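User: Thanks for the earlier help. One more: C-deglycosylation enzyme beta subunit. Can you show the sequence and predicted structure together?

Assistant: Of course, both are below.
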Amino acid sequence: MLPEKILEPGTLRQRDGKVSVSVRMPWYRALPLSSVTDVSLEVDGVRVPSESLRWTLQGRSFALDELPPRHDQWWYVLDSARVEGDLPALDPEVPHEVHATVGLFIPYIVVGDDTLKIVEHDRKTMHVEEAGS
């Protein structure tokens, strides 16, 4: 629905062998974290291993497999989530192609016998920002 708004420009960071970006919700209403699915991150065509990905929102961090039972934590439309995972060091002097995927189950829209699932992608070119900025 809002794929071009998923990746927040200027949020590519690296620290201690990890890379992270801020992502926004590709939907127009708040959803529980249990709705988040199919999260992936690539930088310069190198996929961040999904088992290393962490989802941080409102000061709480979760592995992706910890999201499905999180009916008690909500992702609000104005909030940014931080997606972080293992990746070799990036050259801070050159721009990097960042590709993010975020899927969402929309629990209040039923299609047949299932809930609606959307999977959106965004791609942006960014420089690595300093950790403190």
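User: Great, one quick takeaway?

Assistant: The chain has one domain: 3-126.
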